[in-house]
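Anyone able to model this chain together with 1-O-phosphono-alpha-D-glucopyranose?
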Amino acid sequence: MVRKAIIPVAGLGTRFLPVTKSIPKNMIPVLDHPALHYAVAEAAEAGIRDIMFVVSKNQETVERYFQNNAELEDALDSRGNTSRADEMRAIARMVNVSTVLQEQQLGLGHAVLMAREIIGDEPFAVFLPDDIIWGAMPTIGSMIEQYREHGSNVIAVKDVPDSAVPFLGIVDGRPVSDSEYVLSGMVEKPSLENAPSNLAIIGRYVLSPEIFDILERVEPGAVGEIQLTDAIKVMMENPGVRAYRFPGRHFDVGTPAGLLKASIHAALQRDEMKDDIVEWMKLAIAEHGR
Ligand code: G1P
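re: yes, here you go
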């Protein structure tokens, strides 16, 4: 059973300056929830109970968002807005959260290693909250099932265009079903010539705790950082690594344009907003479209 997840949120969020001068990047909203909410909700839906955020300084708002705010809840109750108050309480009930400080941002692999003590000797999930996935089922839940069935590490992947390849982790593998691969290679941020495929790692992982010993030893790789991809690669022979090409809709909210697209997608799922947004989009296309 996978009960714990690591969510790295440290980092300057330079693509979102000036907002990130005072607000952690993952607290910027996608429609009306912080981007981070979506990863945590996915985790909770898949039965994960404990979330460890790897934070940098001045990110207290991250933990606070997932805790009770009794004053706010009481104020909403006393104004008769009990459904809103209940909604706020439900956020605090989703998961237990804790934080660990990553003083220096030495890479994703390093961030994961920071949570070693709290994870202990059990399999765990990693979520990169810049990747939001909407689907009928929580993607991580399907990956946990596969981990249970095969005992291999599992990473989420999707097909990406050539232009995206040099910015992502790219895998090489043999399909074993419509959506699953057994991996034989993976490379972080390859040049297009060196990329084994167009199948890219998206920020969902189910990992065995052996990874921590490997992360202690792994040398800095692509862009001079300690890469999670390099550590996972070491486990390819034993106990193995599988990739899951998930069926959901994925958005990279790590860029302003991606964040906006995700917000629009979220708005189009809401009955009370959908018509208004579609009407406005038609006008915008008439004005700017080709
Ligand atoms: C990280 C991973 C990379 C993966 C990507 C997905 O890269 O290292 O393998 O493809 O997330 O979002 P980053 O975006 O941190 O550079």
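The first helix runs from residue 35 to 45.
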